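Page 47, continued from p. 46.
Same chain as before, 277 aa.
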Amino acid sequence: MPELDPKELINALSEFLALFGLRALGGLIVLLIGWKITNKIAKSFELILKKYQVEPSLISFLWSFILWSLRIILLISVASVLGVKTTSFIAVLGSAGLAIGLAIQGSLSNLAGGVLILLLRPFKVGDFIEVSGTSGTVNRIMLFHTVLNTIDNRIVFLPNGPLANSNIINFSAEATRRIDYNLGISYKDDLRKGKELLMNLALAESRILKEPAPEVMVASLGDSSVILRLRVWVETPNFWPVMFSLTEKSKLACDEQGLNIPFPQRDVHLFTSAAKE
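Result:
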């Protein structure tokens, strides 16, 4: 076995340390400068989102996503400076990302739906909504699901993926709503008296808005009754209280003024014939 020349070994080691040291120094400089730049970019992005009043939960997610995406790019750049072949590294990273994406595609769908909901804001916390036959007050909007409180105080968790692609009815989006209240009176009753009764109820109810003005009309001529319709506008929180109040007061007023509220009836006619002898 040939003996190693100490001088040659020292020279080779010196050359290796010099070459690697320069690369290490360059990689360290790139890492330190890049780390500060990525932090500033992520911070600027966060301030822009806050300026446009994006939901805090979405700001936190997007800030974290942008920051770590930039840091991954930075680490790949540092590895390139150190002489590491990044082509195979990126390929492996891409394959791993694809495999993970396929494995959690349902969760990613909900995540994308959550981002869309928080960006487009079809509803906000506190709104009363109906979606796919489920209605309730929005309690929380998370990245993967939305939480509703139903009127009987049940908790419903709705995945954001299907929710973002569903027809959403937002009952709280507007400040005012219109009530269409129907009352059926008998064909024998005075039509003008029935219309006056409904108008007086509307004018006496303080929660009904003066503008647009209340309207009373004949909605239809039913099988057993004349259907009168009262149209009034109220502030959105007063919709159901006013509806219940009109229902009760209209019944009492009909009783006081002698108006009949028809209900389904059936007349049975009996025919008898003489028994055969």
